[in-house]
């Protein structure tokens, strides 16, 4: 068993939410273990909205967004339909968002976390025990060995699986099961996120760094349609999203339909919230966990309403052109 540290923070997951939380906490001098299950980051381009971009820079990670291999400016969102709806980012702080290449983006934040002092361990969480002396014991299976780690605080950044939070008693509710499938498109690259209704759901296209064009179709799965090359894009919510000495962030707390463009924004804001409450309280206190859970529930409810409005518009467009 690795030496248990009274103040050790175990971050389960090394995607954008987990790596950012690890970076922020390590930069504050906290003992951080970042557990990386070594799954490859999704090979896609994803949008980082303007406000999240500004938060990124405020945390000292602006160089990631300035790297042309990782990020390219995104000027806004265009919804195509009977009437074109253009949402321009020019009026928002920073004037534009970013289209980021996820594998490069995730790797850069992990590198920053390690450089700040976070311990990077490749392995998979298989069990958690809540000891009576205010320490969680985590059983981790690495490539060539099994080890046990004692940690005071757990941050679940394991994505939609919420693997740590569910072991601590939290429940995942699927609001709608969705699958994403990449398709080929030949449109000229431009710095906008385009989305439009489709026969069974909707699709989007965007241009990322170095002119990389990405296009995905999102729909509810049909019987016999699921294939290994499809990606889970389901809208899900965790209940609760935090408790005494643990917190879930990013997709582990709330996973949004991609049409909401909330994924990386939520990863950033929830990582900031988790790091802030741990720095202030030493761990996740029950009062802070309750407030965070309320905020997550309100965000999920508000986003779900907005999502249904957008889907209603797309249904109207399909009926108008039928």
Describe, in plain words, how this protein is organized in 3D.
With 322 residues, the chain is α+β, with helices and mostly antiparallel strands. The protein is 31% helix and 31% strand. It contains 7 helices and 22 strands. A 7-stranded mixed β-sheet has the order 6-5-15-16-17-14-18. Helix 1 links the parallel strand 1 (9-12) and strand 2 (32-36). Helix 1 (16-27) runs parallel beside helix 4 (102-115), helix 1 (16-27) packs parallel to helix 6 and helix 2 (50-58) runs parallel beside helix 6 (263-281). The longest helix has 36 residues, at 286-321.
How would you summarize the topology of this molecule?
Layout: E1 9-12, H1 16-27, E2 32-36, E3 45-48, H2 50-58, H3 62-65, E4 71-74, E5 76-80, E6 85-88, E7 97-101, H4 102-115, E8 119-122, E9 124-130, E10 136-141, E11 146-151, E12 153-156, H5 163-167, E13 171-176, E14 179-182, E15 193-197, E16 201-207, E17 213-219, E18 231-232, E19 235-239, E20 242-243, E21 246-248, E22 254-255, H6 263-281, H7 286-321
Parallel strand pairs: 1-2, 1-12, 2-8, 5-15, 12-21
Antiparallel strand pairs: 3-7, 4-7, 5-6, 9-10, 10-11, 13-19, 14-17, 14-18, 15-16, 16-17, 19-22, 20-21
Helix pairs in contact: 1-4, 1-6, 2-6
Helix content: 25-40%
The average pLDDT value, as a whole number, equals 90
Coarse morphology: globular
Q: Helix count?
A: 7
Outline the biggest β-sheet: 7 strands, mixed
Beta strand count: 22
Task: Write down the Rg.
Answer: 20 Å
> Which range does the strand content fall in?
25-35%
Structural class category:
alpha+beta
H/E series, N to C? Answer: EHEEHHEEEEHEEEEEHEEEEEEEEEEHH
Which strand order spans the largest sheet, edge to edge or round the barrel? 6-5-15-16-17-14-18
What ranges have pLDDT less than 50 throughout 5 or more consecutive residues?
Answer: none
Cα separation of the termini = 64 Å
């Amino acid at each position: 068993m690795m030496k248990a540290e009274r103040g050790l923070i175990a971050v389960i997951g090394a995607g954008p939410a987990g790596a950012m939380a690890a970076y922020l906490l390590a930069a504050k001098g906290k003992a951080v273990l970042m557990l990386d299950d070594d799954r490859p980051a999704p090979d896609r381009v994803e949008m980082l909205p303007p406000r999240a971009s500004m938060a990124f820079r405020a945390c000292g990670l602006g160089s990631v967004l300035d790297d042309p291999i990782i990020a390219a400016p995104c000027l806004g969102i265009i919804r195509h339909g009977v009437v074109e709806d253009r949402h321009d980012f020019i009026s928002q702080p920073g004037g534009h968002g970013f289209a980021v290449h996820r594998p490069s983006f995730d790797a850069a934040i992990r590198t920053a976390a390690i450089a700040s002092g976070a311990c990077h361990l490749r392995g998979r969480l298989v069990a958690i025990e809540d000891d009576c002396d205010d320490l969680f014991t985590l059983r981790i299976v690495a490539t060539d060995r099994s080890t046990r780690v004692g940690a005071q605080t757990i941050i679940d950044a394991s994505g939609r699986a919420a693997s740590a939070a569910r072991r601590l008693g939290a429940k995942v509710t699927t609001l709608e099961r969705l699958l994403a499938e990449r398709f080929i498109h030949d449109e000229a690259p431009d710095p906008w996120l385009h989305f439009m209704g489709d026969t069974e759901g909707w699709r989007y296209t965007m241009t990322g760094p170095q002119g990389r064009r990405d296009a995905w179709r999102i729909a509810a799965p049909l019987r016999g349609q699921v294939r290994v090359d499809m990606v889970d894009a389901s809208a899900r919510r965790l209940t609760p999203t935090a408790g005494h000495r643990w917190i879930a962030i990013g997709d582990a707390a709330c996973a949004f339909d991609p049409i909401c463009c909330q994924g990386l924004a939520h990863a950033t804001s929830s990582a900031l919230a988790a790091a802030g409450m741990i720095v202030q309280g030493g761990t996740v206190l029950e009062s802070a966990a309750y407030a965070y859970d309320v905020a997550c529930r309100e965000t999920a409810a508000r986003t779900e309403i907005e999502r249904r409005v957008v889907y209603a518009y797309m249904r109207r467009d399909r009926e108008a052109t039928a």
